[in-house]
Amino acid sequence: EPRSTCCCLAWTLLIVTINILVFFMNLLLLFVIFTIVLLPTIVVVYFGFQCHSKVLHSAARYCRSFLDDSSSSALIILGFVIMSPLIVAAMAIYCSLARRFHLLMCFQPYSRAVYKGVKWRWYEEGGLCRCARGWNTQVKAWV
């Protein structure tokens, strides 16, 4: 049966809050994975730009001793070349984690706020911790 207007608004606010928290948890996981996987690219491009005479031209010892403009340009190019496969690897890691832990299934539909007696999606599918039960390999993250 449908909820009253006040109750529906309160449940809608609760569901919106839960969905926003789940979204930011997914975003944080995505940010951490991309930062860790792309760290070599970040370091190589940073040193390339730092030691190039037309960009930052640092007075650091390693810039004067080891890196001239040609080697700085090579570092910049190398950093951007290795970025593409690392982005693909980072996205693959995130997608496998999201699928394994069912992260996208934590989002709740708004029908939970409109009708009484409707169970939460995570409760219907075995609870938040599915470790004790067998994993359902037929469940897709986008369903």
TrEMBL record:
- Coarsely, its chief localization is membrane
Question: What membrane topology does the UniProt entry give?
Answer: Multi-pass membrane protein
Is Acyltransferase found in the keyword set?
A: no
**GO: which molecular function terms?**
PDZ domain binding
Under the heading InterPro entries, the entry gives:
TMEM88 (IPR033355)
Q: Which UniProt keywords apply?
A: Membrane, Transmembrane, Transmembrane helix
The organism's taxonomy opens as: Eukaryota, Metazoa, Chordata, Craniata, Vertebrata
Which family is it part of?
Belongs to the TMEM88 family.
What stretch or stretches form a coiled coil here? none
Native source organism of the sequence? Semnornis frantzii
Q: Where is the protein situated, by its record's location annotation?
A: Membrane
Q: Please give the name of this protein.
A: TMM88 protein
- Give me the Gene Ontology terms describing cellular component: plasma membrane
TM regions (residue ranges): 12-39, 74-95
